[in-house]
Amino acid sequence: MSDIRDGKRPGSDLVILDDEYSFASKQLWEFSLIERVSGNILINTTIVHQDGLDHTPVGSRYVKMWSKIQAMKIFSSRRQNIDSMTAHQVAQKLKRTGIHPGTIILVWAVNIGDLTILRNFLESTGYFDILPSDENCIPLIHVLRPNLPKIGQSPFPLRLEVLFPVMFPRHQLIGLNHAALVDCQQTCCAHDCSIWKRRRH
């Protein structure tokens, strides 16, 4: 991070990623990437699917119903300050913003699912070698969990919508979760806080 702050490396070498996707089919519907150090927004977009939205359920019919409700929120015409892109536009935007196979991607998760879903989307439309490999994706929950107390015998809940108001009780981003950009920005704040706490100890 210090090399980026000193201008020795571009901000796009270290980014935060968040996806919103169908709980039923895992089809990518929205994603955002921001620079970890500066917070600059590299991309924030919903996805245009030429063949329509896929609600094919992996589990019960209730999953399909929830997927449709989720889509209504994500693709609402009332949303502002978010792009709408095809796969080709996404690929070109990622290249222009400096994303490359050496980029380090941080995700607020216990696994690399967000990167996998974004990669599958791009590769399904013929775009390869834009995103980094799985080894360059760091799930931050594993980083933060050791610094948090337990509640009785249970680990502290690490869902952003629960943790963020505890860490930043009057922050303007509280209550706006499950929009990709907001989740990226909350992740950036939470990661800053965890770094500060580790340095104190």
The 3D shape can be described as: globular
Q: Percent of residues in helical segments?
A: 25-40%
Indicate the proportion of strand residues. 15-25%
The main β sheet shows up as:
6 strands, mixed
What's the quaternary structure here? single chain
Adjacency order of strands in the biggest sheet: 4-3-2-1-5-6
Number of helices: 7
Structural classification: alpha/beta
Q: Could you state the order of secondary-structure elements as H and E?
A: HEEEHEHEHEHEEHH
**Rg, Å, rounded:** 17 Å
Mean pLDDT: 91
How many strands appear in the DSSP assignment?
A: 8
* Unreliable sequence segments: none
Span between termini: 20 Å
Element layout with pairings:
Layout: H1 2-5, E1 14-21, E2 28-35, E3 41-47, H2 61-74, E4 83-85, H3 87-96, E5 104-107, H4 113-124, E6 137-139, H5 141-144, E7 150-151, E8 154-155, H6 160-167, H7 180-200
Parallel strand pairs: 1-5, 3-4, 5-6
Antiparallel strand pairs: 1-2, 2-3, 7-8
